[in-house]
């Protein structure tokens, strides 16, 4: 098949909108879509200091690459989770990616910082649950302590569609009220944005291949059996039968999100007595889980 724009050999077939594109015109299409997402949802402003959280995977690397190419002031943060060989491999890829992108890379190692790696803590709490808590706290505190205006993550359309689907299936209305491409900053919570919000995982993989980004393919050993993977498979089957299902589902959710906001209770946040970050009680959930008696130092 031939590229719809120039007639050269096609690099990819897009299912929605249905068209064939060569590598060069696909890269243009992808970057234009990211730019349009940023403008549509007012995610970023020129000259803002942007922190991209890079895992070593494709999504975060592509986010950093495109934002840098679009002229944003980008720095990257990698959180080494201390999950043996998987984390060492992830860090190695993050370093390669940032060299290619030409962006500074900051590394925080959970095991050095807290004494235990993810998966090593004796707790009844699911590993993915406290891993998410730990990552969110570290990248927010790092951004806050070092003067970043905004945090950009690599969540793509597939991630968002499966998350919304999962929470609808379980009627988690509190989570449904707070999702979207932009999470406004408040107090010590730094603003968070998702520039790949309207791009599929397949498109992200193709872009990484087209521009030469290498990334870790291995799945986190603790993610096996996660329900989000099952929800993604269901949505992929629907997308195959009816192209456009995912984007229409997510856009429909954004139009109706206000229906869930009425149930969102405004929680009055205090200051954690250990680290000074926002907390619902005397201690924030991070300091409470890790049993900290003094704050962690994340200043560069």
UniProtKB/TrEMBL annotation:
PROSITE patterns xrefs: RHODANESE_3
InterPro entries: Ncs6/Tuc1/Ctu1 (IPR000541), Rhodanese-like_dom (IPR001763), Rossmann-like_a/b/a_fold (IPR014729), TilS/TtcA_N (IPR011063), tRNA_thiolation_TtcA_Ctu1 (IPR035107), TtuA-like_LIM_N (IPR054306)
The keyword DNA damage is annotated on this UniProt entry: no
Residues annotated as binding Zn(2+) 2: 272, 275, 284, 287
Residues that, per the record, bind Zn(2+) 1: 3, 6, 22, 25
Record key words, sorted: 4Fe-4S, ATP-binding, Iron, Iron-sulfur, Magnesium, Metal-binding, Nucleotide-binding, Transferase, Zinc
Cofactor(s), names only, from the UniProt record: [4Fe-4S] cluster; Mg(2+)
GO cellular component labels: cytosolic tRNA wobble base thiouridylase complex
Gene Ontology biological-process entries: tRNA wobble position uridine thiolation
Domain of life: Archaea
Domain Rhodanese residue range list: 14-91
GO terms, molecular function: 4 iron, 4 sulfur cluster binding; ATP binding; metal ion binding; transferase activity; tRNA binding
Pfam families for the chain: ATP_bind_3, TtuA_LIM_N
Protein name: TIGR00269 family protein
Organism listed in the record: Thermococcus aggregans
Lineage summary: Archaea, Methanobacteriati, Methanobacteriota, Thermococci, Thermococcales
